[in-house]
Design a protein that fits this description.
two-stranded antiparallel ribbon; Beta-Lactamase; 7 helices; single chain; alpha+beta
Length: about 220
């Protein structure tokens, strides 16, 4: 006599396609004993379902808490951008000192260890620090902000101290045709700017800064 060997997959497939099986064998529901997923104990089917639902609810609560944490972080970032933008609009000093003022206020608003700014262009009325052509080329290759470790990045010489993570934000003219410089944000926390971090707020920051620069230039369409 031939014997049919049932696999776990075959049993699962049978039960999924025969929902009336347990109606016809109700006593089996009461006698079923299932292993506890975290101990050597056994559970009834009802106990195992309760355990599963409790575990699932805990996972949903964790996901909800993560969502709320992200929402709160985004709210704080947005508020900081508003405060910074307000400070830039209220600035009444000279064009020469404006970049320094903007960098210092940005560092304060976001609690950063260091903020560096570089601007290039022979028509720029703003004071700026020196930079290498290699660092300028590296920035101009960016289509979106870079976030991650400083490592051996070409702009590493801009910073005055060792940093765990940085954000390099290219600055483009209002029409997005030409890169005129970069904002570089540095943190001593490796998780502050990580690879794959969303850059929407950083891009908004760049747009706000470029718009503020245009206030001090005779030709607002050519701020570099």
């Amino acid at each position: 006599m031939s014997q049919t060997v049932l696999t776990a997959e075959a049993v699962a497939d049978f039960l999924s396609h025969n929902p009336h099986f347990f109606l016809e064998h109700e006593s089996l529901l009461l006698s079923l004993k299932l292993p506890h997923p975290r101990s050597n104990k056994v559970l009834s089917l009802a106990e195992r379902q309760t355990f599963y639902l409790r575990q699932h609810n805990q996972q949903l609560e964790q996901q909800l808490q993560q969502f709320l944490n992200h929402a709160r972080e985004n709210e704080l970032i947005q508020q900081a951008i508003w405060r910074w933008a307000t400070e830039l609009l209220a600035y009444q000093g000279s064009a020469t000192l404006f970049p320094i003022f903007a960098s210092q206020r940005l560092q304060t608003q976001y609690g950063l260890q260091e903020v560096q700014l570089r601007l290039w262009g022979h028509r720029s009325p703003f004071s700026s620090f020196s930079y290498s052509e290699a660092s300028r080329h590296a920035v101009e290759q960016l289509q979106t902000p870079y976030t991650g470790p400083l490592a051996q990045h070409a702009i590493s010489s801009w910073f005055e101290q060792a940093l765990a993570s940085v954000a390099i934000i290219p600055l483009f003219e209002p029409d997005q045709t030409r890169c005129i410089g970069a904002l570089a944000l540095g943190s001593d926390k490796a998780q502050r700017f990580t690879e794959g971090t969303g850059t929407e707020f950083l891009q908004i920051m760049a747009q706000v800064f470029v718009a503020a620069l245009a206030r001090f230039h005779e030709h607002t369409q050519e701020i570099a």
